[in-house]
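Annotated sample (chain length 543).
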Amino acid sequence: MAVPVLTPQAARSTSILDKKLSHSSPGKWGVLAFSLLLLGGLLYIGNALKLDLSAARLHSIFPFLLLGIALLSALAFEFVNGFLDTANAVATVIYTHSLDPYVAVVFSGILNFVGVLFSSGAVAFAIIGLLPVEIFLKISHGSGFSMVFAVLIAAIVWNIGSWWKGLPVSSSHTLIGSILGVALSYRLVLGAQSASLDWGQIQRVLVALLISPAIGFCFAGLVLFLFRLALRDPRLYQEPQGSTPPPFYIRALLIITCGGVSYAHGSNDGQKGMGLIMLILVGTIPTAFALNHQVHLRGAQDFAVLSRQAAAAIGHSLGSDPAPAPSLSAAGVELQHFIATKTYDPAVLPALETEINTLAAEGASYASLAAIPPVLQPAISNQMFLCSQALRLLPGRTGAPRFNPKDAATLATYQKFLNRSTRFIPIWVKVAVALALGLGTMVGWRRIVITVGEKIGKTHLTYAQGAAAQLVAMVTILAAGAWGLPVSTTHVLNSGIAGTMTANGSGLQWTTIRNIAMAWVFTLPIAALLSGSLFYLFHLFVH
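Output written by the structure step:
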C-alpha cells in the first residue's frame, strides 16, 4: 500500500503522536496476550502444514527446502506490507483522541486478523490471474519457480529500498507491477505465440487501482459536506482541544470505522500474498496442494455424476454426428490454445468433452479429492483448470454454440465445483499471512501514523474529517474486495483525508502529495522492470 514515509527530520520528538506516547505505554497483559497469540498461531501453522505434507510422500528433502525458502519469502512480503501500511486505519482515532495509541493498534490488529481469516480469496485469484495460463500448467517446473521468486524478490526489494530512501510506496502496486513484469518477460522469452496475457483482467485491476483514490478523494469531501448539513455541532469541525475525546456519537463512529477499515484492509491486502503462497505450494508439493482435500465427492455433488452431466450438456451442442473425439493430450493442447488466444474453434467442444469424460472416469472411484492417488492429483488439477477456464470463456465467443438454459445451468454448476476443487486457500495460510501482517504492524505503525495525521493537510485533522475519510475508505475497500479487485488501502484513505482537507479549505502539504504522485508514476514500471529482469536471469539457469 502507498505509504507516505517521513524523513528522520520530520519524525522528531515534537510530533503530536510522540507527546501522546510519552504518557502511554503498552500494557504487560497486552504484550502477553499478543505473545500467546503468536505462539499459538505458529503451533497451529506448523501442525496443519505437517498434516498437509504427510500426504506428499516425497523421497527427497529438496522440495521441502524450496518450500520453506519460498514461504518465508512470501511471508516476508506480507510482513513488509504490514510494516509499511497498517497505521492508516489507526491514525484518525489516535489524532482525534478517540483511542489510546496502543489500544488502537491492538484493536486494529485484531480486526486485520479477522479480515484475513474471513477473506474470500477472490482478490488473491484476481491477482494471479494476471499471469499467462501456461504458468499455471507449468508451476512445478523451472519457469514456475523462476516466476515466483522473481515476483517476491522484486516486490520486497522495491518496497524496502523505496522506504529506505523516503519514497512513499504501494505494496499493491509493487506486487501487481512485479507480476506484470514477469508475465511480459515470460511472453518475450517464449515468443508472442507461446504465451498470452489476459488483458481484460489486467485492465480491470489497473482501473481499480487508478480510480479508487479518486473515489476516496471525491466521496470523502462529499461526506464531509453532508456532515455539515446534518450535524450542526461546531465541535466536529474544529481542531481537538488538548486530549479531549470527541462527542460520544462521533467517537463511536470513528472507532467503528477504524475497525471497518482494519477489517477491510485485512480482507483485501491479506489476500495479495495468498495467491502467490498457493502457487508456491502447488509448485513445490503438487501432490499435497494441487487439489482441495476438503471437497467430498459422494452425495449431493458426486464428481463422476457432475462430470457426466456436464459432458452430456456439451454433447447436446455437438449434434447427432459429432467429429471423432480427440486424444487426451490433443484435447489439452486445444483447450490451452483456446484459453490463451480466446478464439473459438469447432475443435474446442470435442476437446472439452474429452477432458470432462476423462475426469468422470478418473474420479468415479474416489470418495473425496484427498483419496485420489497423489501421483494423479497434479494432472487432474490441470485438467480441472483447463475445463474451468474454457467454460468461463465459451459464453459470448464468436462462433461458439449457445447452450439451452438447462445445459447452461448444468455447466455453470460444474464450473463452480471445478473452481472449489482447485481455487482454495487453507486456513493455516490465512493464519500465517495474518500473523505476518500483524508483526509488520508492530514494527512500522508509529512512523506512518505521524505522516497520515500531520503531513497531508496544513491543519490538524478534525473529528468530522477523520470520520468522513474512514467511512469512505471502509466502504470502498470492502466493495473492491467483494468484486475481487485489489486496491491500495493507504491511497484510498490518504486520498480521503486530502479530499476532506480540500473540502474544508484547510489546504494540503504539497510535498507529501508530490511524493505520493511520484510513487504512482514510478512503482509499477520499476517493479515490472525489476521482476522481468530477474525472471529472465533465473530462466537462463532454470528451465
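Annotation: Residues 1-13 have pLDDT under 50 and may be disordered.
Annotation: The chain has 22 helices and no strands.
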